[in-house]
## 1
Amino acid sequence: MPRPLWTGAISFGLVTIPVKVISASEDHAIHFHQFHLSDMGRVRTRKVCDLDGEELAQDEIGKGYEITKDETVPITDEELDQMPLPTAKAIEIVSFVDADSIDPVRIADSYYLATGGQVAAKPYTLLRQALGRSEKVAVAKFAWHGRERLGMLQVREEAIVLHVLHWPDEIRSPESLAPKDVELDENEIEQAVQLTETMAADDISGFRDRYREALEQLIEAKSEGKEAPEPAEDTERESGKVMDLMAALNASVEAAKESRGADEGDAADATVHPMRSRGKAPAKKTAARKTAAEKSTAKKSTTAKKTAAKRSHVKKATAGKSAEEKRSAS
């Protein structure tokens, strides 16, 4: 288990639960240093004053808020210590809400809360059981890195997780990003729904970071003096190709079926979920399906006629060739 990032206690009514905050995730990204190309020397960031160009030590640097380009208000650490922050070492539960009421966009970082000694075992388990049985999450306030934070406590397996939440006014509105009203054909909607069902998965545990794997191979090869491996072609993506929406949906459904080993006959058995709007019936779905079926029948008939004509032509050509061979033999 990694080193705790923070130690304190959960305040649950009159109950105090000593806990340790541990990061719930790991950073596996590959990080690079900057270096001088001519001699491979490290390039480092130095703190230099804009006015006199001198490099500064940490004790010479203070905080300030820039009001305008020419005016900065200095703020001291003593002034910050007097701000009305919650207790520095307490995660104070202020309410319990349904988990669905928390917008996932508000979740920033996640941390595991481990018990801070044997004395915390019973109250920790009590809170975990209460959260699990009520099917609710706890909303809490706490102080971290000089700021008041909002958090959500949730049960994950046998542990309690602290999700750091953005404040409501920190979330941008997506209203201006929504596309204008567009007309959609019912067949397009049904194909899109079928695509979601074809691509459905039980979980996302099988996904891999292929970019990081390729980068690791590149670094390993160069460190051993070998040639860089050829990058694998991504056959799943085709760039620069503009397709009709319906054709793209059909192609996507077929590709998803092939990747999952489904046979071609599964299309007829696919479950279709009609889109209903405020009690209105779907827009002539039966007619759309009938038209699709008629087109399919006509296409099969045309294909059959072409095949029959081709066989007749081959048969005549073969018969003519056999007659010519007989005359030559006589």
Note: The first helix runs from residue 77 to 81.
## 2
Amino acid sequence: MKLIIKYYYFICALFIFSCTSTGTIIENETNDFTIAFGSCNKQYVENVLWKEIKKNKPNLWIWGGDNIYADTHNLAKLKEDYATQKNQKGYLDLVKNIPVMATWDDHDYGVNDSGVESPNKIEAQKAFLDFFNVDTNDSRRNRKGIYHTETFKTAKGAIKVFTLDTRYFRTALTDDNDTKKRYKPNTYGKGTVLGDQQWDWLTKELKNSNAEFNIIVSSIQVLSQEHGYETWGNFPHEVDKLKQIIKDSKAKGVLLLSGDRHISEFSKTEVKDLNYPLIDFTSSGLTHSYKNFSGEENKNRVLNVVSEISYGLLKFDFDTHKITMEMRGKNNKLLQELYQIYP
């Protein structure tokens, strides 16, 4: 066994303990449940990370959006691009014996930055559900939007996973004509990310959750809001609403996952009267990344931005109520780590 060296930064508070570390590590530990996730995957490019992800023996794979790059309203092309992805051996080997959950983002939904106005979203939804072999009796086959939840039960407890749809109902963005940024926040109260029906669903599902951990997947970032691209921060009232329903639901161990940006980072904030910090773990991208990243503001960032291809891992320990969050890249190298213990 190689000597393992880690550097830890400890932040302690009543009932809460979190830690960050960076470096390379050889794992030799058992976890009660492991989730792997990632986003931004070009189906026509070799994905060298599939075999690395499999080494971690995940119990669940989650697609975080931009699962293919189709950028089209042409249904035939969309199906063809899905078929290309579906025939990739590395991907098939990974998901052969584990469940898969997914949301979509703009490049597999329609065209860049598209939302409620997308003309063929009904057809795109069918293609998405067909790709993931969703049963004909599933509720997603008979309603608007691909939002979904599943609960995974273990001998020690349960994990509830929510995949949000941040495309089907998302209303117009506001162009930023004053700076070099693409968008600026809407007037407070104007527009929506999720739409009324999905908000009602999320509120109910969170409130009724008895799981020890609740994982909410958004294709776009929630807590990184200053960069000027797509983010929940363009709808600041929706960010406040999400925080409020998380707090009001009293759901345990809520963690946010996101993608889209071609970088990976951890964001963390304190929510008044919520007895643990709210973390947004961004993992992107799987086949390409923002290699020339030179910095951008994110007041909620923890540690550093990772600008190489990577994927995310969540390792759950029910005995300690801990989630260990890892960014990993080529050769399964650990690029960055954060963990949180929940009350």
Note: The two ends are 34 Å apart (CA to CA).
